[in-house]
Input
Amino acid sequence: MRHRLLFGYDQGVFGGLLSNNAFLGTFGNPNNTIQGQIVSTYDIGCILGAISSIFLGDKLGRRRSIISGCCLVIIGGTIQSASYHLPQMIIGRIVAGLGTGMNTTAIPMWQSETSKAKQRGKLIIIQLVLVLGGIVITNWMNFGFTYAPDSQVSWRFPLAFQDFFAILTIIFISFLPESPRWLVMKGRRDEARVIIARLLAKPQDDQQVIDDLSVICDSVARAEEHGNFGWREVFRNGKKQTLRRILLGAGPSFMQQMGGTNVVAYYLPVVLVRSFGFTNRLALILSACHSISLMFWGSMATFLIERVGRKNLMLMGAFTQSICFCMAGMGLSFNTNRGSILAVTFIFLYYVVYGLSFLSIPFMYPSEINSQHMRNTGSSVAMVVNWLFVYVVVLITPDGIANLGWKFYMMFGIINFCFLPIIWYFFVETAGLSLEEIDRLFEIKYDNPDSERDMEKVGGYTAAVEDVTSEGSK
Output
């Protein structure tokens, strides 16, 4: 969870620095395009880090992947804070991004594989709320350094401070268990039994420990019956429905980024200054207050994620986000003080809805929807998609704000609306199901193409899984 603070801190720190005179002066007062490239090179590193996880994630395991990622973040943060030239800053951004890309792939998987079904969604949401905690820290830190605007410390210290969270993560992760599902996949069943017993706080010979281990072993064994798990499997859609599940896992990440979240997450101080005409200091205060508000609404999602479900929250989120961006664009189009107030109101309302929906679902859904053997690959692909479109949005935002004005915000309103039929028709609910039950759902769907529709009609996936399982055992 400490890495989630680091992730949020990394995401938010550069938005405030783009209005820092000492920072801009050090790098020759870069124009909007260069500013976008400085910020987005971090996302290039994240893309490369997520790609590397496809090949290294299952070899290293969840814990060692996270430790490796944190080491890269420390190296990258140190290079950034010591930079005097753009190439040095860009290299530091890429190296730090490599570490974050690895960690955003490994951590949700690790959390999903060590959580009970009814707690999985809530625990991942808590992780994402800590991301917002990192953004809150960086916003208030950037605001504090506005009182020392000409000091090099005002931008070097915030960039160096990310190392603190990475070091904390490495220290505390030594006391946490490896994923029992990964251990079973590697044939280390005795170690998996020990960890399952620790997670359940029960003796190793307890019946629940034995049953949970047996379910995981059976799921892995069924998957192994279907053959090899190379890249050829990714493009197949046999009984495990691998391709469909990878695409479903990557879908929320695409929707999160193209829904416009990082227009504000990375650039809120810039947006408030350039689009709304606020002073730099007022923009930083509003950004910090906005982050605290988003933390609150993100935490409220813990009460909804299992009751309402992932699919319904995404539908609600896409519809309301569409309205918010359209209203923000409309307010800016008036080019009046009242219009700006209307726009700011809906920008803040957007993050109320976003906190309840698309904040956390893109990080939990890939680790839930993919099978055990393809979970690392599916989660890695989802994070590649995530960081690829973070890069696109972050790169185009400065020029989009400068050249399109209010139309830039309206564009994201239209995109959010287009997500609604895709979510309604293609996505599967995973709330309340264990990872093995979700795996079984897709096997049921393959054997009986009408089963998914029938299960929704009778009112529950869990009941359907239990019925089919019981029938198969008779």
